[in-house]
Amino acid sequence: MKLAVIGLGLIGGSLAKDLRDRKFTSFITGFDANSNNATEALNLGIVDEIKPLAEAVSNADVILVTIPVNAIDKVLPLVLEHVNPTSVVIDFGSTKESICNTVRKHPNRKQYVAAHPIAGTENSGPSAAINQLFDGKTCIICEKELSSEEAITTAEKLFQTLTMNLIYMDAKEHDIHLAFISHLPHAISFAMVNTVLEAERDFKNLFNIAGSGFASLTRLAKSSPDMWTPIFRQNSENVINAINAYISELELFKQLVKKKDSTLLHQMMERSNEVKKISPPAKK
Questions:
Q1: Which of 164, 161, 151, 140 is nearest to 18 (CA)?
Q2: Which terminal residue of the chain has fewer beta carbons within 10 Å of its beta carbon, N or C?
Q3: What is the CA radius of gyration of the chain?
Q4: Looking at residues 187-214, what average pLDDT do you find?
């Protein structure tokens, strides 16, 4: 099976590495608007060749679109214009409603599967690509009913090859959920690091005494602004709702600290400990 990967950064490169190693594909064509990324991916052996977009798409059985969400809006209709009748297109954007709406009435819509594998690191670029990035992680497929059975079967086979757990939901529902469990944590991390950077001006050596807790909370702040700015723009309404909910909780916490109300502070933190029951332990 011939694969085309549109976007050769962390996600696209990691997909290519595992899908080749696990025999899902025998030949990988790459395309990246950034010529340096394209050259680096070729030199690293992530792809077998680099081709212009239309040529890469027209010669592939499966096309993976792994670029920032604002670029997916523009590129996905072009990709669907050039696909062969039996080809399958899968996008990997972190937002889904805007992307799905963009191609909802496209004549080749049935060949497209809207997906979001919830996996990643704070690193970017072809050199950041790693094996087993997706193993055991969750992948959400949206608007399954608008894709052909053949397209869904191919996508499911691909994600099963990556040993991912599949969930199906509506695109709008996806964006609401991700605003809380993914987009909000990134927004908090970006804002918190900026807060500490400002404090560092007055209190030198703050970063020198930071412990593992600070490192865990700030890992997300190292994520690519090129990827996350479009996510916040596309999902702005849901992200704002999530931020407002967080601010309400933070304001409550502030008031309890101000009042030195040990009892309610303890209760509030105890309630948050319930996450242990529903969330797997962090990897060490």
A1: 161
A2: C
A3: 21
A4: 80
The torsion angles phi and psi of 238, rounded to 5 degrees, stand at -70, -40
Predicted local confidence at residue 284, as pLDDT: 40
* Residue at token pair 């004549």: 107
What domains are there in the chain, each with its CATH number? 2-169 (3.40.50.720), 174-278 (1.10.3660.10)
- Output the pLDDT for position 190: 93
| Tens-place pLDDT, residues 8-62 | 999 999 999 999 999 999 999 999 999 999 999 999 999 999 999 999 999 999 9
Give pLDDT, residue 274: 86
Query: What is the pTM (predicted TM-score) of this model?
Result: 0.86
Compute the residue count for the chain. Answer: 284
CB 194 within 8 A of CB 170: no
Residue with tokens 């969930």: 167
